[in-house]
Amino acid sequence: xxxxxxxxxxxxxxxxDGLQNEAEPIPTATKRELIHRLADAGLPxxxxxxxxxxxxxxxxxxxxxxxxxxxRKPGVAYPVLVxxxxxxxxxxxxxxxxxxxxxxxxxxxxxxxxNASIAESLERFEPVMxxxxxxxxxxxxxxxxxxxxxxxxxxxxxxxxEVSEKLITMGCYEVSLGDTIGSGTPLKAREMxxxxxxxxxxDKLAIHFHDTRGQALANIQACLELGVATVDxxxxxxxxxxxxxxxxxxxxxxxxxxxxxxxxxxxxxxLEKLHATAVWISExxxxxxxxxxxxxxxxxxxxPLGW
Length: 307
Ligand SMILES: CC(C)(COP(=O)([O-])OP(=O)([O-])OC[C@H]1O[C@@H](n2cnc3c(N)ncnc32)[C@H](O)[C@@H]1OP(=O)([O-])[O-])[C@@H](O)C(=O)NCCC(=O)NCCSC(=O)C[C@@](C)(O)CC(=O)[O-]
Prior knowledge:
InterPro entries: Aldolase_TIM, HMG_CoA_lyase_AS, HMGL, PYR_CT. This protein is of the alpha/beta class.
């Protein structure tokens, strides 16, 4: 028996996860317009940027300039990634209202990505979360490598459950489970989610799939069957993590929403506007959208939803 949700919250990660790995510098104005277009398309959460070290992620080195220049739409959340107190101070200064802290279920990946063990990363988050509490800022948590690690291979679901539970206990309102290198397949994805849901309520979990091996939509569908109702995705399928070799784009927002609408699951997103945004950002980057939907003219792409 499936337990599909009636409504899914889409967390749009394109401006952050999508752009962080782009080699050519992208103008701040283009990033800002992308964020505005996504909010205008009805995305309820638009992850805007990262306050990480610009030496580690040069592409998002303009966070302090970009964030204050966003015209924030009421009702839309604009979280940013924060790895430590330095990032938190910069985020507060820029007027951020919601942050996301990030760690992993793999020690080796965490070391490469944020130069810390899992335990050290959680220690670093303590003062960040205390300041967030003082300022009334919501904190989301990420766990990477939930279905495999580029350095360690197989990751046990229990390791994912353990770190997810710790993030919730520390005060995260939600934990996003990242298949960083897109190595998961549907039954394993569902098994991992079920293991985590034994320790964290399903309504505090989100799923975050990369489409490296073409498994993302199938994985999402398998996880939706367990009732998860928050899905991360990236417009035009942009994305990749520079510290995970072989991590390709995130699952494309427009492909996910097409599937959800076809299943009668509401997202509140205007798919026509999102499609136009996918085409627009791909033009800015000088390439075709990585999504399936974005490569088909909009009328043809969306027509089957009316059949
Ligand atoms: C965590 C650190 C900073 C540790 O990096 P570190 O080198 O160990 O940092 P440090 O504390 O030793 O400081 C070194 C220098 O960096 C500066 N510094 C220190 N922190 C900051 C900061 N926040 N903002 C600006 N500057 C900073 C600090 O001030 C100092 O400057 P110096 O004295 O040399 O001039 C670094 O490893 C880092 O920034 N890593 C981020 C990597 C990243 O963003 N990866 C991608 C995001 S995760 C992801 O994509 C996965 C996800 C979330 O999407 C889910 C999934 O798919 O799995």
